[in-house]
Amino acid sequence: MFDAPNGVGSASGPVINARGEIAGSFYDVGGLRGYLRDEKGNFTIFDTPENTGGPWVSGINAGGDVAGYFGNVMQVGKVQGFVRNRSGDITVFEAPDASRTFVNAINARGDVAGSFLDATQAYRFRGFLRDINGDLTVVDPPNSSFTVATGINNRGEVAGSFIDSSEGGKNRGFLFWGEERGRTSGDL
To answer: Residue 147 belongs to what H/E stretch?
Structure first.
């Protein structure tokens, strides 16, 4: 068993990679914080940028890059995604026209998958793939009224679930094929 240093409670995670590194979120007296615990039990504590509600960690890859999301306390209801690389640099992003961006998974390259609340479409949840270069592709199966991208592999293929409006609201799974499989980006 372990506790984050000076922690008063766990918030999310933990998630683990193949090397035994664990990442998650916890509360201390200062609020919500993120952690990376190496395979020897050493902790690195991190925060998201100033004026945020702290990180909700949702993924770690083989290289020790951590991904998740956080709330912006200066803009109530605003949620942004982040990737923290092994060196400690944090990249913050949001999907276009999103009021909330949730990162759910990260692969070995640093590509992430998740979902966002599209403020231009009656607040519809849509999936996304964001590659290491920052290019974001919306992932929406046909007839989807609610899409959640939950996983991504090292080929950039995204899996998740959606509500199919043409099937009376049936919850279905999807696989978004990556370009490395010889298909056009965006094939579902």
So the answer is: strand 144-152
